[in-house]
Amino acid sequence: MDRNESKEHVENSCGCKKQGCSGQSAKSEGNLDGFLEDKMLDDRMRLIKHKIIVLSGKGGVGKSTVAANLAVSLALAGKKVGLLDVDIHGPSIPKMLRLDDAKPEIRKQAIGPIEKAGMKVMSIGFLLRNRDSAVIWRGPMKIGVIKQFLKDVDWGELDYLIVDSPPGTGDEPLSVCQLLENADGAVIVTTPQDVATADVRKSITFCRQLNMPVLGVVENMSGFACPKCGEVTDIFMTGGGELMANEMNIPFLGRIPIDPAIGRSCDDGTPFVYHYSRTETAKAFERVIGPILALSARDKDKQDTEKTTGGKDIMKIALPVAGGKLCMHFGHCEQFALVDADSKARKITGQEMLTPPPHEPGVLPKWLHGLGVNVIIAGGMGQRAQALFKENDIKVIVGAPAETPEKLVAAYLEGTLASGTNVCDH
Ligand code: ADP
């Protein structure tokens, strides 16, 4: 079930067929204009490697602050970043980046994003004539404008697009999730107070119903960072975000304290992390972006795998096994598990156990190459053997834990295989 089909499971209160109403997908259905629009959207989005949606159960919890600082941190890490603010009711990114007077250039069939702090920025706020006046949008207009922003902004090629979504679980964040069909996932921002309410849990359930992975929860305004010494004091109850994340089985990305410097830096127009990279609060932001930066490390892994599989989705993975689990000493294992996997569907499609030929230098690389193996997951392997496999276009992962082949391959396909040190070097 894709995100557009699963819409009716989220809410189907209206039943009317108007664009933007509950019960209707944000993607077009069955007309030529709609088809062309969807194609334009897909073409734009295809140039962006990772799309991350920042969500919150309600407004005022620091969603835009987290989105802006996340985007700047990624740009400071050398990534090509876009920041899109589609928070229709409170577009705060222009103020946060001191771009109140920015006027995006209207190019042929596209809107040019504004360059700031090493990123490309676009906000619904740029298009409002009077930023202080309340905007009244009709339901269908809201969805239309969100779609237009995703489809018509000339982002070019990006490593990351961070999308500051409207809060809640209504039609607007729903449209963002549906339109960004292949987004990497959502970062959910909450506060210690918000954790006590049902709002944040609703956001998590909302993502689950839309098949949108939750990259993790950030507990913002968690404790107070002293402006003099930087020490963080828990003035209210904190830590609920982590408990809730554990309970709901999603990653906890970290706590960000209330730091007066965050508000000040917003007034300066440059997000906090740009100025205060050494403070405890900046370190907290750094921890939050760790798993998100890991997404691009996975890209490299995927490219390496594609090289060895010739770009095919089907791969054969070999694992040395002893007693049903990964054998730590590659050359001396009892058996090899040969696992067939579909890397795109992230599924194991077959498995067999084979006894290797008697151990002699150079025999195993030849044997495994002959069996069509593309990847080896090992505990330890000597440098010479690794070089031989490389020559045979077989990718080797060393330092995997002593787990069953199924578990290790599943983790490899999910991109979560923990590979430690090479435990054997002979
Ligand atoms: P949202 O997008 O959820 O509505 P904002 O990111 O606009 O919330 O934040 C609301 C206000 O709270 C802003 O003035 C922002 O500067 C401030 N703020 C957010 N996080 C923090 C923090 N950790 N410490 C201090 N002020 C913060």
Describe the structure.
The protein is α/β, with parallel strands linked by helices and 426 residues long. It has two domains: 3-301, P-loop containing nucleotide triphosphate hydrolases (Rossmann fold, 3-Layer(aba) Sandwich); 312-414, Dinitrogenase iron-molybdenum cofactor biosynthesis domain (Nucleotidyltransferase, domain 5). The chain contains 15 helices and 17 strands. Strands 1, 2, 5, 6, 7, 8, 9, 10 and 11 form a nine-stranded mixed sheet that branches. Strand 9 (214-225) and strand 10 form a beta hairpin. Helix 2 (32-46) packs across helix 5 and helix 3 (63-76) crosses helix 12 (280-309). The longest helix is centred in the C-terminal third of the chain and has 30 residues, at 280-309. It is globular, with a radius of gyration of 24 Å. The structure holds adenosine-5'-diphosphate. Adenosine-5'-diphosphate binds at residues 56, 59-65, 90, 92, 220-221, 256, 258-259, 262-263, 266. Residues 56, 59-65, 90, 92, 220-221, 256, 258-259, 262-263, 266 line the site of adenosine-5'-diphosphate.
Write a brief structural summary:
The protein is an alpha/beta fold and 426 residues long.
